[in-house]
Amino acid sequence: MSSSSRDSFSSPPPPLDWKFSQVFGETAPGEDLQDADVVSSVGFENSGDYLAVGDRGGRVVIFQAKHGKHTPNSFLNRNELERLDSTFATHPEYQYKTEFQSHEPEFDCLKSMEIEEKINRLKWCSTSNGSLFILSTNDKTIKLWKVKEKKVKKVSEMEHHSVVCSENDLLSEGSFMSELDKPPTTNGYNLDWAEKIAKDTLSSQEVQTKITHTEEATRANCRKVYAHAHDFNINSISNNSDGETFISSDDLRINLWNLEISGQCFNIIDMKPLNMEDLTEVITVAEFHPIHCNLLAYSSSRGFTRLVDMRQSAICDHSARILKDAEYHGSKSFFTELIASISDMKFTNDGQHILIRDYMNLKLWDMRMDSSPVAVFKIHEHLRPKLSDLYNDDSIFDKFECCISGDGLHFATGSYSNNLRIFSHGVGNEEGITIEASKNPNRRSILHPASRPRRSSLSNMTRGFYRQGHENYRSGSNEFSCNLSSKLLHLAWHPTTNFIACASGNSLLMYYA
């Protein structure tokens, strides 16, 4: 480890004691899990006051942290209130705020292809005026939503014969009177009729005052739609620190957008070869640097992480630095490149380190040292002898996310059997902490994974030649020490406190330390 890395992690953090906090969307016993309800993305707002969750049904659900005025125990004594305040200081609790339908299923007529409504990524936008903006994307289309509270009038009761509007009264009475029945008027108005309308108007105002009240409701409005810019499925989006631009990446290209302009974008990275048969790797994730608006990083299916500077050229085809673990420079086995594929990547808040998740490991890199990672955490090393079985049922292509604490000293990712793996740099325990994401963590895991159809993705093109000659190859045993059908793919760390939100199926579970 370099001296600069030692300075960054000079004082090892104490081990954290994690406890269960909340759960939303828990499936009742015997209830079937609907595919549309499965969570596909989780993300905290920059202050941590809001949490957004996307699912495969194209919906976005937003939760809000409970503050003093939102606590239901408003009539507690002073000691109990002080205890609740101290609890909230270290243990935020969330409540449902609103939800909206972000994407609908579509059909691409030119390519004869269905476009799923599944939410692939959610990203909150930074604003200076406190407004809430969030980016959501499915495979092809990115949308910018504004979430705001509006005052809505609710009708509690309505009198059956109450007068609603004087103009309606005028039209209704006039429409049932014939020309012979109409009384003579002065200057076009009947004086008696005008007096009656004046009285009805007053009574209408009194009724409206009694039967209506005002409530605050949260609404989400779509402000921008960024479409028709990706030929392949979008795998990630990332906001720039300048607050004006963001990037979106698919398997072969990365585009730069301005939040205010939805009609055009700039292609800054293009990995598509002239002949698609020469394709050797695809982009898996892209992320902007948290401080320097000109720097970004993107990872590939071969395990490379490239750092680029957008000031060098319009097309960022020359990497400023390449992070590649020396472990894979030597002899390669059948599955070496498959398990080296990077599924997620996160910068620390200071931008000095970057956390990378491949299939087997969680690696922490120092941005100033590209020879090797400063720390490697094994996630499920016990599955290495079973890679052939994992390949045959497509589990080896699962994309696990990772997250970093606000101080950059703790890291978390998911594994099978709904296991949440949490590590701390410098503590000396490389095994970390394992928590089963469930309200009943002692339940017995099922040993046989459920079969599923093979994914349709361009990333499989770079690995397709592995299938030939090994379609029916097995290691001789179908037994696994974990439940492959239960996996913890999506999670997020609170920006300011040790609090993790993770998704298991349609459930959102929260833990604090």
From TrEMBL:
<protein>
    <recommendedName>
        <fullName>Serine/threonine-protein phosphatase 2A 55 kDa regulatory subunit B</fullName>
    </recommendedName>
</protein>
<comment type="function">
    <text>The B regulatory subunit may modulate substrate selectivity and catalytic activity, and may also direct the localization of the catalytic enzyme to a particular subcellular compartment.</text>
</comment>
<dbReference type="InterPro" id="IPR036322">
    <property type="entry name" value="WD40_repeat_dom_sf"/>
</dbReference>
<dbReference type="Pfam" id="PF00400">
    <property type="entry name" value="WD40"/>
</dbReference>
<dbReference type="InterPro" id="IPR015943">
    <property type="entry name" value="WD40/YVTN_repeat-like_dom_sf"/>
</dbReference>
<dbReference type="InterPro" id="IPR001680">
    <property type="entry name" value="WD40_rpt"/>
</dbReference>
<dbReference type="InterPro" id="IPR000009">
    <property type="entry name" value="PP2A_PR55"/>
</dbReference>
<keyword id="KW-0677">Repeat</keyword>
<keyword id="KW-0853">WD repeat</keyword>
<comment type="similarity">
    <text>Belongs to the phosphatase 2A regulatory subunit B family.</text>
</comment>
